[in-house]
Amino acid sequence: MDDQFQKWQKTMFTSYQNQAALFNRLKNEMIGLYAKINTQEQIIISLNRERFLLAKENASLKLKLSQSRTFSEENNEDIEQLETHQMIKDMEKMSISNEKLLIAQMSLLMDDDCNTQMAIEYCTHKLKNSENYQIKAKKITVDSATTALYQSSLGSLHNGSQKNETLVFYYGHHDHLDIIANAGFTNEDFLYGSFGKGLYFHSTIKNLQEQKIQKILLCKVALGRIELISKSKIKSTITLKRNTEYDSVKIFDMEMTDDNDDDDEIVIFDSHLALPLFIITFE
């Protein structure tokens, strides 16, 4: 009887080891697949922006050509070279960023690898003239209840299993940021903006005041199905109606800039789909 029990126990232990190994392998494959999906989403968004920018520049050049009928062949050749140069310059902007930025982004989105050094690295790439600031990051301890609400809310997304998680920045008063860090986001944090009442975030860090200590929140949000809107189509005096077929709105900054200082505004309408990760301090 004891021999049979030991044999059964050994069989069960071996089976458990095999299942554990299979689980770890599946977990690693899912992490790799998630990284590929997230990268593809970022590429699509970047390509959409570049398509709009190129179309705008092309229309501007055509207008200039139509307004003048005295161009010589030499001038036409110069314009063609200018268009080619501009296109090459725009294509160079399509790269999602350098390797360090991608590593930092993926590490922050994966809870197990989330650390302050990666947060500082990510913010450094998202801040123009970052060398002028001392950046500090304080990790926020998210309680289990907030995490559970986040996970349960993912099931309500239109895209189903495609969470489209990304990193964004939230601005606000210092005291209010501390409250959010302690309690998480709630509907009381909703603001009225271009798309009505929701949580408004930014994709980059901008408008910091020099010689002044400032704080923002680095957050993880699940965007689900995204409605893409050009900022040029939005009038500040008009509040647009939210399209309920989408979970979030991404408002593209379509202004042509030489420093690639694009800032997209991101709006979500469920406070449970945002998790504060770090308090970022700039000195």
From TrEMBL:
Stated name of the protein: Poly [ADP-ribose] polymerase
Native organism: Rotaria sordida
High-level lineage: Eukaryota, Metazoa, Spiralia, Gnathifera, Rotifera
